[in-house]
Input
Amino acid sequence: MTSTPDHQRGDAADLQTLARVTARVRHNVEKVVEGKSEVITSALVVLLAEGHLLLEDVPGVGKTMLSKALARSIDCTVRRIQFTPDLLPSDVTGVSVFNQDTREFEFRPGGVFANLVVGDEINRASPKTQSALLECMEERQVTVDGTSYQLESPFMVIATQNPVEMEGTYSLPEAQRDRFMARVSMGYPVEAAELAMLQHHAGRDPLADLEPVTDAAEIRKLVSMVARVYVAESVQRYAVAITTATRRSPDLELGASPRATLHLVRAAKALAAVNGRDFVLPDDVASLTGPVLAHRVLARPDAAGARRSSADVLARLVAGVPVPGRAG
Amino acid sequence: MSPGLARAGRSLVLGALGAATTVLALQTWRGLTDRPADLVGPVLVLALALLTTGTALRALGTPRVLVALAQAGVAAVVVVAQVAGGPPVPASFTVLADELARAVENARIYPAPVPVVDGGLTALLLVGAALALWLADTVAATFRGAPVLGLPLLAVISLPVTVTGSAGPWWLFAATAGSYLALVAAQAAQDVGDWGRPASTSAGPGAATPRPGGPGVPGVPVGALAAGAVATTLALVVPPLVPTLDLGLVPDGRFGGPAGDEITVANPVTDLRAGLQRGDDVPLLTVRTDGPRPSYLRISALTRFNGEQWSAGDRDLPDDQTAQDPVPDLQGVSTAIPREEHELRVSATDDFVSTWLPVPAAISAVDADAGWKYDDATMDFIAAEDELTTRGDTWGATAVELQVAAGDLAGAAAPGGDVDELFLDVPADVSPRVGDLAAEVTAGAGTPYERAVALQEFLRSDEFTYDLDARSGTGGDALDEFLFDTRVGYCEQFSAAMALMARQVGVPARVAVGFLHPDRVDDGVWEYSAHDLHAWPELYFRGAGWVRFEPTPAARTGAAPAYSEPDTPGSTPDVPRPTREPSASAPGAPATSTGPGASPDLPEAETAPDAADGDEATEPGGLPWRVVAGGAGALLLVALALLPRALRRRRADRYARDGAEGAWAELRAGLLDHGVPWPAGLTPAATTRALVADWERDLEAGDRPDARPGARPGAIVPDDALRDLERLVTAVERERYAPASASASAASAASGTADGLAAAARRVVAARCAGTGRVRRALATWWPASVLRREPVTRTAGAEDDERARAAAR
Output
């Protein structure tokens, strides 16, 4: 093969654009959320892979700040829903209201009608409201009174939740956690980052200065580019081997679903693209098993008793799956 | 598992293997003492104490030097407790010092196996064992240098070889070698395990936990173990086939024999045994004489019997009794006995190293270096100067041939005060059965002479069999076994038994060690060789002096001296029967120079001369075969030595044609060759991260004792190497995971031709292994480790899974 096909040359140029745009967004968000570039990258990967992100951590570590900063960096519609126990499903999806003037029912869109939906403290809402949101996430449409309304594209929900042990919360059932492509934890900032935060943010809203660095149209283009990233069969097998291993592991009560495999490979493609590659490496897959799979699997009580989190069990499983390619 | 516990577990494995290997090696010392079982308990206690202390201290993270010092202290306490039986107070150490001095003295006096009398060697052996075990734990577990442990182990095994000429049975060597290999393998596995799996799955917090020795660790290559096993087997099997490679482990197909071509005589009895049992007969002395065929050339007289062993005893060596001074008249020999004198000129070959000077028992003059001195009670010559030996030396002596007749002896009175009481000394712990037997044998014998004759007749009777393979030893159980049970022995037993029983019936006696009779080389030129070594009793009779008897059966010695067989006066030729020791047992060369009866006390001169020649005649077929086998073996060894390099080169050629994968394999092979571990089971990128991390660790810790070669403090990983590595990784990732068309185009676009990549791989290896020692470098060239590893094979993740699923379904 001596000549380079045009479409490939185009791909290479596109990939550079993609890498540039994501770098810009990341840089922008980092102005607000310091020292969390890994979390930011995960968020971008989920956005480009058309998934939804679950941010889980104790209050006050910047979950909302991160989602807001991400939304601000992209010139697109953003809605924020603060979940409370009295929030109704219709507040999320929208409602048909009888218009006195026109004598007709007209649809008043709910909180999900936006490119980016920030669902704050999703585990404070009632299960009924939670499931309304999750249904929209999966189907990317809202059906009210027999009429379907398409959601915007790109569409991404960034839901934040406090760890379930906290008071006054309804934890998300496993089936609904499965809808989220990835779950990431913010973690406490390192001391230097916390100090920098104090110096920069004291007294004014850091979000106010944030300018959008891209827009919805560009993100749509990037998403289509990610879909074209190549996944070798050996790498596909590798992903399947990992999820299969979670189902066979004696340490896990619940393994990963086939949807999880799908999400894993899609996220891996996005990660490869973000790293400027038009093909997926096993490393991409392996590095995403934590965020993509950990919230879907359930460690056995005895494994949990041995103080092993799902993430630890997964890390061990992945280490045991042979890497495709020549051994050695 | 906490890091401390993990560390403790790893050091425990190494420590336990090191201790086991050393305990095995220490078993070769069993031959040094006659009660080896006594040492087993203390040695095990020592090993356990050292292992426990070491493991505990290492688990606590104690600095390594402190661990070693603490263990030395513990070893000292244990040894003191075992030897002195008390707490480690100054008094106990004094006891230990005394015991050590005694043990050194015992080692000087007694041949191995040293009887446990007076403490025997116990203190010395225990201290040695403590030192070896301490070294083993310190080297293998504390400093993680298992391969280095080979040197102390070699020292441990060499000790019995230098003392007794035997390193114990071959399986003991094999077991020690096996255990040592296991130790080296365990350490290598742990070193590779140190790599763990880098944090490739660490996008989420807490995902990256180091995994010492997890399931992904490839362990030690089977090939390396196989190489070790093959080397061990070769060491055991090749020496008997290749004469030039005789390492002494397997002399002449018989395990446990003496080593080397040299006969060293420092301790006459052991060296006598070693000389007789050796596979090859080696010329030791050449004698030129104007007289008849010389015989019975004495090296030393053993005067003291302690119940276990005959030893040389004490010597009184005044300054005026050198080999340049006149010698006194023959002790107790009446002038009535006719005598002849002959000049002898004795030359020792380079193979004969003795601190005793071989001369005839009866001499009237001697001409040798003034460093040789004699005791007038024994008339044997001992080197009174350091470094003085017989090696290559020549000396002269005037031999006195006494024409002793039976009648001279028959009338000899009891010795009275002629000789020292020592020559009648019988230890109290000699079994009373022996005394009873002596009395029974000599019942009816009135005079000392008749008693001596009766004893000799008894021992030369058909009831006793001559066999060199008999159990060695002349006291205690060995004597009992010889006299009452097996009645199988060789000159050592026969002479010792006769001397002891003679003393029991009141005849002063001692055991002489020397040469039996020489082979004729030329007119007046005779040669004594290793198989001619012999022992015989000398009994004292007033008027005849010290008279030689010959209780060893005719099969070995021919006829007994005429004067010792009153019933068969004259000299009846006694045709020797065939024996198990071809050249040694045959009574030598054709008796051309002396006729029958010419020399009544040289009966062997009259015996059948053909045995030796016959033996030579059966040999011819053997020599070429050995030469051929040796040549083939040598060729095989050369081929084996060259094979790894050739294999490695072929692989390098193949790698160079195999694109990015080939370059990647070349990188792996090159690093393995230089002893840099290759983290297996990782993706290319993760592999590179692990390699670089290890590289940096090495560079940072150049002063660590276990730093790998090439460590230079303050250096950093060169940028060029990092760029090359990145190029290799990108290329191999493309080849493996990118669409076929893209990888090909990218390869040509990125100037990443296969050749360039292979060169990059070699550059990385060169940079990584810069500063490697010369030995390591030579090893990498000639014995590249990578050829022993399995080559990487293509595999897919799913395939094994399917395999497992199928297996589960069945």
